[in-house]
Design brief:
The complex is a heterodimer of chains A (about 260) and B (about 300). Chain A is an alpha/beta fold and about 260 residues long. In chain A, about 15% of the residues lie in helices and about 35% in strands. Chain A contains five helices and 16 strands. The radius of gyration of chain A is 18 Å and the shape is globular. Chain B is α/β, with parallel strands linked by helices. Chain B has one domain: TIM Barrel (Alpha-Beta Barrel), CATH 3.20.20.70. Chain B is built from ten helices and 16 strands. The chains are: A alpha/beta (about 260), B alpha/beta (about 300). The structure holds flavin-adenine dinucleotide, flavin mononucleotide and FE2/S2 (inorganic) cluster (FES). Flavin-adenine dinucleotide binds near residues 74 and 216 of chain A.
Amino acid sequence: MMKDRVVSVLSNTKVADGIFEMVVHSEDFPELIVGGQFIHIALPSLAHPLRRPFCIANFDMSAKTITVEYAVVGEGTEILSRVENGTELKALFPLGNGFSLDADYKTIALVGGGMGVAVLPAIPTTWQDKDYHSFLGFATASKAVLVDELSKSGKVYIATDDGSLGEKGFVTSLLASKLAMIKPDAILCCGPEIMYKSLARELEGMDIPVFISLERRMGCGVGACLVCNCKVKTPKGDKYLRACVDGPVFPMKEVIL
Amino acid sequence: MSNLKVNIAGVDFKNPIIPASGTFGFGREYNEFYDISELGGFSTKGLTLLERDGNANPRIAESPMGMLNSVGLQNPGVEYFIENYLPWLKTIDTRIIANVAGSTVDDYISICDKVSIDGVDMVELNISCPNVKAGGAALGIDPKNVEMITRAVRDTCRKPLMIKLTPNVANIADNARAAEAGGADAISLINTVGGMAVNYKTRRPVLANVMGGMSGSAIKPVALKMVWQCYNAVNIPIVGLGGITSYTDVLEFMICGASAVQVGAANIYDPMASYNIVKDLQRYVDENNIDINELVGTLKVD
Ligand SMILES: Cc1cc2nc3c(=O)[nH]c(=O)nc-3n(C[C@H](O)[C@H](O)[C@H](O)COP(=O)(O)OP(=O)(O)OC[C@H]3O[C@@H](n4cnc5c(N)ncnc54)[C@H](O)[C@@H]3O)c2cc1C
Ligand SMILES: Cc1cc2nc3c(=O)[nH]c(=O)nc-3n(C[C@H](O)[C@H](O)[C@H](O)COP(=O)(O)O)c2cc1C
Ligand code: FES
């Protein structure tokens, strides 16, 4: 059975320029959460009836908490940024397939661009016995988040568009320059689609499995309304799948970008 | 327990709450949240003869107290529905309304024939989907076409036939009368109201399809007015919808003349919406000791 839960806000603080971290708690907690799944949060506003999807940035099964890392980009996230501690919100979680890591993937490269980094910390929480290397790309230093958090799980490499933090340039080029040294068994990536395109270019000719998380506008979040379609290659030809239940994580080679 | 049972065109529903087409898939997803046999019935995602991919993404936008969609009738095709979804639906004790659409009159005739089978309790003809460029909308706008298409499918449709009306017309009462004249057993209204969402920063439409259909609370006043207009125009039963999110909305629609209602966007906002409305409505009729049917068309306008 699936459930619509009520979560209460434990903290909601600004962590970077225009970016907030919200920790929510629910006594009624699911038995299993895996990195790459998301939470679909109802806003405390009748005028804004659609829920907002966010990656489960991290989770704590014993404290029964979920951490969400979000950028204020529109009306809904602006409302969310003003939510006070103790507020109760309806939330569906965990939704989506999440990543799945084969036992023989030992060395993992985590790649995040912009708010895409938000999906990464839950991965080491889910699979603790892997060797992680994180590659984070931000527009500029003031937008950098989760650097300390990810440092706990392994080495972190940073690239910014303006060079104000880490290397100047694309995070995908930074990853490419370290591939020979790190030799990852798999690459898990979340960011804008343009980043997936450049990642595909950088990795051409190599056969490292790459898994990406797709961002789609969502309605129900549970597979019923068909607004979140994405085009995927299957043995039976190209198919439209639902990002909310069939995804949001897909093998990059199957996604038609 | 006071009565919530209703009868629409000879079909018994255990209560008047029916999730609307396109917001409830084929029932499986919400059955993960609650037993969908608690519902009066539900209307399937719009079915077409052949599989359809639908429109490009983004397909959804928010508007104040509402939403816009431009899914464009993505569905696996009627044969797939019959083979893969209907057998399971037959095991569920709730009414199944097959919502069907087409691009040509022949499509409609043929799909009505295909869905007139065991397991389907009623056929809802979507002649109003604003998203399909070829045909769909055109057939539902001119009352002459509404009558023509209803008459055309009447023979091959061997189940009670409900015509779903679009609000994007000159006079909804004329279209309701046209459906009745063509032989419809019931009408349902309203489908989505044509609309747009625009991003002023990028100067782009939010929906890839540019235009879409509005639903949710924002359209409720339009829907109530049209249900009332149709109630005064026809004798066949009316299934009312458009912006229903609570049991009080249901009461308002029934007072305006709806014999049952459908719940659309509310399922998208809240997976428990339809279930909660059934429970709240039961509590209301129990507390007030009324039969829900007593309410239908009791709007006092003197
Ligand atoms: C699976 C998934 C995980 C996500 N994880 C995160 C995350 O961890 N951190 C984060 O900051 N953002 C994340 N996003 C994007 C986030 O959902 C949007 O930024 C947010 O919904 C914007 O809401 P708004 O009301 O401020 O924007 P508005 O533009 O006012 O929203 C209007 C509507 O469009 C939708 N929308 C607008 N932009 C997006 C977008 N980029 N993606 C999806 N829907 C959008 C909204 O949900 C809402 O329905 C994720 C999106 C998806 C699909
Ligand atoms: C995402 C979505 C998909 C829809 N798909 C269909 C469809 O396939 N066939 C149809 O007749 N109506 C479809 N509709 C219209 C609804 O059934 C309903 O008429 C409309 O949304 C108004 O009701 P509401 O305000 O309760 O949502 C769809 C609506 C939404 C929001
Ligand atoms: S958001 Fe409704 S099907 Fe994916």
